[in-house]
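>> received
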Amino acid sequence: MASNLSVDELWTKLQGATDCNSLLKKNLTEPIFKELKDLKSSFGGTLADCIRSGCMNPDSGVGVYACDPDAYTTFAALLNPVIKDYHKVDKLEHPKPDFGDTNNLGFGDLDPSGNMIVSTRVRVGRSHASYGFPPVLTLEDRVDMEKKTVKCLETLTEDLAGEYCPLTGMTKEKQAELTADHFLFNDSDRFLREAGGYNDWPTGRGIFFAKNKKFLVWVNEEDHLRFISMQMGGNLGEVYTRLVKAIKQLESSGLDFAKKDELGYLTFCPSNLGTTLRASVHIKIPKLAAEPDFKKFCDDLHIQARGIHGEHTESVGGVYDISNKRRLGLTEIQAVQEMRAGVEAVIKREKELAGK
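>> returned
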């Protein structure tokens, strides 16, 4: 459970954190704190809900979560500077969604030889417009939201059709199967826990996956919804097209997603909003990864390299997770094209270094 310190106690704790370099500490000045501390969002969310995790975990990178979609308006004096800081933008002017023409993408398999790219994945986060985020949700909200979500997921057709597995009451056999497939999520993140992300765990959470296991949906993990399209190999065209098809089918099934003009789609953590899109490959690049300027090489291409088990993990056997870095201030198709160009440049450089 999250701590129950008052907003003033959280502020005092943050001020006393000497080794804290979070965006919360940097941007929550005393005047902003005083301006926001007694406000409530339309969902009943408070500043304490937004800053609790960052105050209790001084080693946070961001340190701020939005308590609900309306927090991005009510607590904009804090959230807007954090968003600009994290996403490295001077002003907030996110374009309207544009997924491009999936019949004419101009890209397909980024590694036809199959020698370098192990797997490809594209995911987006979505939030129900009519529900708050974890800190303000009740158990009844979670159950109600899960029911509405599952009803819409049951309308998916063709290769997207599948089954929903709630975490509540899941058998050991099903847990083992989903863990082996790397589908299962858990309640082990202390930053999320302190933000209320695991309240009422595991009620209202579950996983939907298509029969071919190339499309899945995480329900009430960190965000209300995470749509994930993935497959082995490097065919980014197929993976992206499947995701766009799923998003469009689910939008037409009655799901209404939270968004804000200058910020795009809204998520629990401000680091994910905008397109919310993360396109990634697991790729074997032992030579390039050993180069001293590897990080700069990636930064210059607006891509991020990390270990295959997520942020802050090491590579295994020269395999890295390479993804687009930018989510805000560009369209979905631009984000994917940026990742595509980055991966192609990485492949070219690895081959050069290997003397191929």
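>> Residues 52 and 329 are 28 Å apart (CA to CA).
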